[in-house]
């Protein structure tokens, strides 16, 4: 199995964790897994398409790199979702990094954005 395939496999597994945590009311871990799923997805795609993996946790930066590499404009909704998910990198991990407790709405938004980015990657021709 190629390294990029390992990243995509883990990304798929983390989507399952996010979905299950949303269903079971674990909103902070739901947001965490949604963010991580997208980060792993984008890293896998970058490794596959460019052979490189940027040293960043910024989802919007990775989306931009993919867009440039493929010479294809990224839909604004995908960019917005990447930016929204970025906040969960720290806030879902550290209780004192979040302004308030995670709500169902926060988790639902994270899962919706996760799905949006996965949909976009499928539209790029990736078989997930």
Q: How would you sum up this structure, described in words?
A:
The chain is mainly alpha-helical and 128 residues long. It has a domain at 58-128. The protein is 72% helix and 0% strand. The protein has helices spanning 3-23, 27-50, 59-70, 76-86, 88-91, 104-123. The mean pLDDT is 93.
Question: Topology of this protein?
Answer:
Blueprint: H1 3-23, H2 27-50, H3 59-70, H4 76-86, H5 88-91, H6 104-123
Helix pairs in contact: 1-2, 1-6, 2-3, 2-6, 3-4, 4-6
Quick description:
With 128 residues, this protein is mainly alpha-helical.
The main pleated sheet reads as: none
**Mean pLDDT across all residues, rounded?**
93
Number of DSSP E strands: 0
Radius of gyration: 14 Å
Count of alpha and pi helical runs: 6
Please indicate the percent range of residues in DSSP E strands (runs of 2 or more). under 5%
Shape: globular
Percentage of residues in helical conformation: over 70%
Euclidean distance between termini CA atoms: 15 Å
Give start-end ranges of low-pLDDT stretches.
Answer: none
Write a concise keyword list for the protein shown above.
128 residues; mainly alpha; 6 helices
């Amino acid at each position: 199995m190629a390294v990029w395939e390992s990243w995509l496999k883990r990304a798929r597994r983390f989507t399952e964790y996010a979905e299950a945590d949303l269903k079971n009311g674990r909103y902070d871990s739901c947001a965490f897994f949604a963010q991580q799923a997208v980060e792993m997805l984008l890293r896998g795609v970058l490794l596959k398409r460019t052979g490189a993996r940027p040293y960043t946790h910024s989802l919007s930066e990775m989306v931009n790199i993919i867009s440039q590499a493929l010479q294809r404009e990224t839909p604004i909704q995908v960019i917005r979702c990447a930016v929204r998910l970025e906040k969960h990198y720290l806030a879902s991990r550290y209780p004192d990094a979040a302004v308030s407790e995670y709500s169902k709405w926060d988790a639902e938004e994270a899962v919706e954005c996760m799905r949006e980015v996965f949909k976009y990657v499928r539209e790029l021709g990736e078989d997930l």
